[in-house]
Amino acid sequence: MRLLEERIVQDGLVLGSGVLKVDTFLNHQIDPQLMEEMAIEWKKRLEGVPVTKIVTIESSGIAPALMLAKLYGVEMVFARKQKSITMDDSVYTADVYSFTKQVSRTVTISKQFLSSDDHVVLVDDFLANGEAALGLCDVVEQAGASVSAIAIVIEKSFQPGRKKLDDRNYHVESLARIETLEMDHIEFIHE
Ligand code: 5GP
């Protein structure tokens, strides 16, 4: 998606070890106009795909996921990274290793918010090693629901996540696919 790629080049800060900082529009400050354009683009790409629910993981997935849910007219659920004291034991959980924080966490969704009738689009801000996406797939599938698609804002295609999801036959739609991530040079894959 051209608009997003331009924004990444303009605002993105490449940190060492393959990490991209995009705090000006996605991970800290959020650009609602861009979030809306992204949701429109995903919906266009997902034409014909059944969707009854949008699922993401806190916190940076929430903004784009909410925009997409609004477009589809369905609810959005975000997986919690820490179990809230208001949650009872009726939860689905999966262990997810965080690429940026380098710790393992249990992500949780209340059983109340997923059912076996659901067709879910998963949303996340980044795809790196695929841990977060696979954890969310696990949670959705524990509920007997189906994963209709995985919608990613920024895919770092030089890391193994995309291949892992392709190998499991998930439908992945990444709005920006980064092939090369260097301090002074970012290259994208265009299909
Ligand atoms: P994965 O689980 O695919 O290894 O990593 C995805 C998660 O790690 C995303 O939810 C995102 O929060 C974080 N992440 C991975 N790579 C980056 C990156 O380059 N920049 C930022 N800001 N977050 C990242």
TrEMBL record:
Pathway: Purine metabolism; XMP biosynthesis via salvage pathway; XMP from xanthine: step 1/1. It is an enzyme of class 2 (transferase). SUPFAM superfamilies: PRTase-like (SSF53271). Xanthine binds at residues 20, 27, 156. Residues 51-172 form the Phosphoribosyltransferase domain. Keywords: Cytoplasm, Glycosyltransferase, Purine salvage, Transferase. CDD domains: PRTases_typeI. Homodimer. Converts the preformed base xanthine, a product of nucleic acid breakdown, to xanthosine 5'-monophosphate (XMP), so it can be reused for RNA or DNA synthesis. This is Xanthine phosphoribosyltransferase. It comes from Geomicrobium sediminis.
